[in-house]
Each structure stands twice: as structure tokens, then as C-alpha cells.
């Protein structure tokens, strides 16, 4: 029984090692650099990237990242565009842009209210999310009354 458990544990460890190698290979092929979660360096890096990034709201649902780059190219070099989508792959109507230059953010903020594909864009600095902190207060669920509170019986 103990030998079976040891054998089973060894198989799981081998599978985990194989999965880690596969993930590392895929990250290497895709050019993804894994971040050390919770490290101070990664937090500084994220803050630095957020300082060069903007939020763009009211983006037309049919827009492609190339269209957004074209609209903001006068501000500076766009490093990355992320148009958020729902589970079905449809645009949620907002995007995030990361510039290579810090001064590009200030120029991009001047495009707040500009028209883009028939819509008036909302351009703001990207805010840094702090894990575990929400921007709204969630009301606790209160169960319904088991009877009509206005009736007496």
C-alpha cells in the first residue's frame, strides 16, 4: 500500500515536471517572460508600465488594434494595444494602450473627447489595480421575508 502511494506520487511529480517544461517551452516560443509574483521588482516594473499606459473608453465594437494604433500614432510609439473582449470574443468597448515613451501619455490625454469611428473617446491614465481592493462596496445579500411584511396574517 505504501509502495503504491510512493509510485503514484512519483508519477504525479513526473507529470508536473513535464507540464512545467511544456509551459516553459510555450512561453519561450511565444516570447512571454514569466513574472515573479509578489516580488518588488515586478511591482516596480508593472508600475512603470502603467505610467506609460492609458485607458480608452467608448471604443467602437468593430475596431481592430491597428485602427487604435493609427489614431494614437501622433502621440508616440505604441508598444501594445489590448482591446478587451467577452467570453464570446466580442469587444467590450474599451482598450488599454502602452506607449514606449512617458510623454506620449500626456499627448494621448489631449485626445480625450476626440471622435473615432463615429464615437467620442474617453481617454484617461491607466490606473494600477491593487489586488484585493475594490472600487465599490458590495452590499451583503439579505434573504427575502418569508411572509409579506405588510400583511398581518
From TrEMBL:
The keyword Transport does not apply. Residues 2-29 form a coiled coil. Gene3D superfamilies: 3.30.70.330. Residues 52-128 form the RRM domain. Transmembrane segments: none annotated. GO terms for molecular function: poly(A) binding. Residues 30-49 are annotated as: Disordered. This is RRM domain-containing protein.
